[in-house]
Amino acid sequence: MPTTETFRIPKHRRHVPAARQRLRKVLADWGLAYELADTVTLLANELVTNAVTHCRVSHAQVGVTVTRHGPELVLEVRDPDRNRLPRPHDSGPDEEGGRGLALVAALADSWGCRQEPYTKCVWARFALAERGRVRVPADH
Hints:
Elements: E1 3-10, H1 16-29, H2 34-54, E2 61-69, E3 72-79, H3 100-107, E4 110-115, E5 120-127, E6 129-130, E7 133-134
Antiparallel strand pairs: 1-2, 2-3, 3-5, 4-5, 6-7
Helix pairs in contact: 1-2, 2-3
């Protein structure tokens, strides 16, 4: 049976740390290994920051869902600007931004995006198994 946590934040940069803290608590409560929890939290920070920065819908909310199901964890970030799908960007050495999706691609086992009826969703998947051992305990 999957375990899921979903929450929303207002679309504003000042709420990104709250999303990061909430996700870190959920992952700790689930007993996720520190290294993987740190990676998931870092990528969530990137995806939530992208959503609050690039969503052009006024007074929107950004949704964050994390699901632990069997041997994988899935992170999903949604915003209502469904027609603006993210695209990786080759940043020059002097650019301050534009590396978030490259970081997601490098650290997640897989990632992508999709249009939903009222939102877009950017997702990242992470394998929980390492050398045949699961890194999270069974559901309580």
